[in-house]
Specification:
With 217 residues, this protein is mainly beta. The protein has one domain. Helix content is 15%, strand content 47%. The protein contains 3 helices and 13 strands. The chain has helices at residues 132-136, 158-168, 192-207; strands at 13-20, 24-28, 33-35, 43-51, 56-60, 64-66, 71-80, 85-94, 105-116, 119-131, 147-154, 173-179, 182-189. Strands 2, 3, 5, 6, 8, 11, 12 and 13 form an 8-stranded mixed beta sheet that branches. A 5-stranded mixed beta sheet has the order 1-4-7-9-10. Strand 9 (105-116) and strand 10 (119-131) form a beta hairpin. The longest helix is centred in the last third of the chain and has 16 residues, at 192-207. The radius of gyration is 17 Å and the shape is globular. The two termini are 16 Å apart.
């Protein structure tokens, strides 16, 4: 996927939709997304994904970078049917460290809703609004990390892969096996480079495949 606008700012609205039945679909982005300073309102990105029986979907966008003064609402809705398998990742970087943005002021909201056969199996909401450095500093929150990733794997083999996936996790990450066919991971890191170093082995294991080449550049 390519955002020809070059980034997201206040008032922008993006909607992404995709579906797969008996087959496999891998979706990624050409480069990192950027959320610029918002003068009026928040930019919104809404994603709707559907996976039918015997289908498999990998939702693997690259990082979203939140600039100082940015406001972004991101929502992911997924409907799985039968034995559908899906791997989802969303990654956010707070500020541009190379530009000295170590504690950007942001308003970031992320909501997930995943259903299987119409039943809600996963819901998650994250909001960081204000001075991100201060909000992420407590040990019980992110211990000063500037990069955060959320990973969900919903598939019949989730339980079988859980121990292998857990063994791959870096120090600042945790895995929860929610049910036999659903696991979730939260990972934090000092920067995007360290976060990706922890994510790539995990995603390759859960995907049972190599990642898109843009992830390896």
């Amino acid at each position: 996927m390519l955002n020809t606008a070059g980034g997201i700012t206040g008032g922008d609205r993006f909607t992404i939709g995709a579906s797969v039945d008996r087959g496999q679909l891998v979706m990624t982005t050409q480069a990192a997304e950027r959320a610029y300073r918002a003068k009026e309102g928040a930019g919104q990105v809404t994603t709707h994904l559907t996976v039918g029986p015997e289908g498999r979907l990998h939702w693997l966008p690259q990082e979203t970078i939140l600039f100082d003064g940015s406001a972004l609402k991101r929502r992911l809705d997924a409907d799985l049917h039968g034995d559908a398998a899906a791997l989802f990742v969303e990654t956010v970087l707070f500020g541009r460290l190379a530009m000295g943005e170590t504690s950007p002021e942001v308003d970031y909201r992320e909501d997930w809703r995943i259903r299987r056969d119409g039943r809600l199996i996963y819901a998650d909401a994250l909001r960081i609004s204000g001075d991100s450095g201060t909000l992420l500093a407590p040990v019980a929150v992110a211990n000063g990390a500037r990069a955060v990733a959320s990973v969900v794997y919903a598939a019949p083999d989730a339980e079988a892969l859980a121990d292998r996936a857990r063994d791959l996790l870096p120090e600042h990450a945790g895995l929860s096996l929610i049910s036999h066919d659903l696991l979730a991971v939260r990972m934090v890191a000092a920067d995007g480079f360290d976060l990706r170093a922890g994510l790539v082995p995990l995603l390759k294991t859960l995907a049972r495949a190599e990642l898109p080449k843009c992830w390896m550049l």
